[in-house]
């Protein structure tokens, strides 16, 4: 099974590759923008599934999905996003996407979703498509302060300290302090491990 993952967040992309290739029967290729993804689609053998990040460079929202669906070979294309609404997911499915995959999916569910779509089925998580907009408590989240959760979310999105500091309007040294506390609370050795723990727990 061959899967193309196109996402501009290095950490998230590399994490996905690691999860999928660990299964042994999935071969991956990667791109960091839509143009790079299209070059791979045109130059390599057909992929069983193409995962496109909704917000990466070149996408222009659902336009990038539609352009990719129009490529020769009739390859299956799914949307990957950490921020998309239920409405965008519905529009993507209506446009012919193989599925919609929230970046908040736990690793095991993500692998199952990829296999399901590659085999010709359409996928969208029922809980996401039917969820009311109410936050639910999470055992891991209860260990962390709201600010630590914001920093951890930035980590799982592959952002650098500088980007997280800018997003949260606090200084970089403050981010580093939050990181230290985060690592201790999550029993993580570094930022990659912290992001993996958060993803596997389905926190984001």
From TrEMBL:
<dbReference type="InterPro" id="IPR001789">
    <property type="entry name" value="Sig_transdc_resp-reg_receiver"/>
</dbReference>
<dbReference type="InterPro" id="IPR000792">
    <property type="entry name" value="Tscrpt_reg_LuxR_C"/>
</dbReference>
<dbReference type="InterPro" id="IPR058245">
    <property type="entry name" value="NreC/VraR/RcsB-like_REC"/>
</dbReference>
<dbReference type="InterPro" id="IPR036388">
    <property type="entry name" value="WH-like_DNA-bd_sf"/>
</dbReference>
<dbReference type="GO" id="GO:0006355">
    <property type="term" value="P:regulation of DNA-templated transcription"/>
</dbReference>
<dbReference type="GO" id="GO:0003677">
    <property type="term" value="F:DNA binding"/>
</dbReference>
<dbReference type="InterPro" id="IPR016032">
    <property type="entry name" value="Sig_transdc_resp-reg_C-effctor"/>
</dbReference>
<protein>
    <submittedName>
        <fullName>Response regulator transcription factor</fullName>
    </submittedName>
</protein>
<feature type="modified residue" description="4-aspartylphosphate">
    <location>
        <position position="53"/>
    </location>
</feature>
<dbReference type="GO" id="GO:0000160">
    <property type="term" value="P:phosphorelay signal transduction system"/>
</dbReference>
<feature type="domain" description="Response regulatory">
    <location>
        <begin position="2"/>
        <end position="118"/>
    </location>
</feature>
<dbReference type="InterPro" id="IPR011006">
    <property type="entry name" value="CheY-like_superfamily"/>
</dbReference>
<dbReference type="Pfam" id="PF00196">
    <property type="entry name" value="GerE"/>
</dbReference>
<feature type="domain" description="HTH luxR-type">
    <location>
        <begin position="137"/>
        <end position="202"/>
    </location>
</feature>
<dbReference type="Pfam" id="PF00072">
    <property type="entry name" value="Response_reg"/>
</dbReference>
<keyword id="KW-0238">DNA-binding</keyword>
<dbReference type="InterPro" id="IPR051015">
    <property type="entry name" value="EvgA-like"/>
</dbReference>
<keyword id="KW-0597">Phosphoprotein</keyword>
């Amino acid at each position: 099974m061959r899967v193309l993952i196109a996402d501009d967040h290095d950490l998230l992309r590399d994490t996905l590759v690691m999860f999928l290739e660990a299964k042994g029967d999935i071969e991956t290729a990667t791109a960091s923008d839509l143009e790079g993804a299209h070059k791979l689609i045109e130059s390599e053998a057909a992929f069983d599934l193409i995962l496109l990040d909704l917000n990466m460079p070149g996408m222009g929202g659902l336009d990038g999905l539609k352009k990719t669906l129009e490529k020769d070979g009739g390859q299956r294309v799914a949307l990957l996003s950490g921020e998309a609404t239920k409405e965008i997911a519905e529009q993507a499915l209506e446009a012919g996407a193989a599925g919609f995959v929230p970046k908040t999916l736990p690793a095991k569910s993500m692998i199952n979703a990829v296999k399901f779509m590659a085999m010709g089925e359409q996928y969208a998580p029922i809980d996401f498509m039917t969820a009311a907009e109410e936050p639910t408590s999470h055992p891991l989240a209860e260990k962390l302060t709201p600010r630590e959760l914001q920093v951890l979310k930035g980590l799982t999105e592959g952002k650098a300290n500088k980007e997280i500091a800018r997003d949260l309007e606090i200084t970089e040294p403050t981010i580093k302090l939050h990181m230290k506390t985060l690592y201790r609370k999550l029993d993580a050795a570094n930022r990659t491990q912290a992001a993996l723990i958060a993803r596997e727990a389905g926190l984001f």
